[in-house]
Every structure is written in C-alpha cells, then in structure tokens.
Amino acid sequence: VQLVESGGGLAQPGGSLRLSCAASGFTFSSADMSWARQGPGKEREFVAAISWSGREEYYADSVKGRFTISRDNAKNTLYLAMNSLKPEDTALYYCYAYIGLDGYWGQGTQVTVSS
Fold first, then answer.
1. Quick one: pLDDT at residue 100?
2. Which of 18, 33, 81, 87 has the largest CB neighbor count within 10 A?
3. CA atoms of 49 and 75, how far apart (whole Å)
4. Residues 73 and 28: beta-carbon distance below 8 Å
C-alpha cells in the first residue's frame, strides 16, 4: 500500500489549496478514504472522509463549508479542496485508507497559512 500526498504549500488567509493523494497497492475504488491533519503542538485530528463510492462525505465542524473531499476512482486519487483558509488550518495533512480491518497513512503534505 502506498499513499502519496501532494499539493501542500504556503497560502494566505482566505486563500485556497487543493491536496491530492495518489494511491497504489490496493483496490482504491473499494476503500473508504479520509484526510486528517496535525498542527504544531497538537494531536492528529480528523478532517474529512468519503465512502468508496463517493456518495457519502463527512467533515469536521472546523472545516465544514470550506473544505471539500472528493475522489476519482479511475485515477486512484483522493482530493481535498480547501477554501477560505485560516491560520489555524496550518498543519501536516495526511490521507488515510480504510482497508478491511486495517488502515494506512500517507507521509503527509505541509500546509501553512500565513500572511
């Protein structure tokens, strides 16, 4: 199983970024997926999740209405569109794959929101 996040970087408050997670080594179209983040000095926290079909989405209250999770099963890729970014969104963002009774993390991509 390999999960490779990309798309992080520096954004200004109010700005946007789109994260991607390229998946391989498992049947992506059968796996529920999620994003989590870990800010400086904080514990890792749930951000958003999406069902294997893409029909169900779940969000943390802190990002609801600003972030959108999506997936392209033909490209084995998970996305997180982040709008109206705030300094408190600064964190290392990870994608996570639910595979059977196991779960797998990517290595993370850094998002920094600062003026």
1. 87
2. 33
3. 18
4. yes
Q: Which residues of the chain have pLDDT under 50?
A: none
Please choose, from the candidates 96, 84, 10, 4, the residue with its C-alpha nearest in 3D space to the C-alpha of residue 47.
96
Which of 7, 5, 11 has its CA nearest to residue 88? 11
- Give the Cα separation of 81 and 84 in Å (integer): 10
- From the CB of residue 4, how many other CB atoms can be counted at a distance below 10 Å? 14
Cα distance between residue 9 and residue 32, in whole Å: 26
Tokens at 46, concatenated: 């749930």
- Which 3 state secondary structure label does DSSP give 73? coil
Let me know: does 50 contact 33? Beta carbons within 8 Å. yes
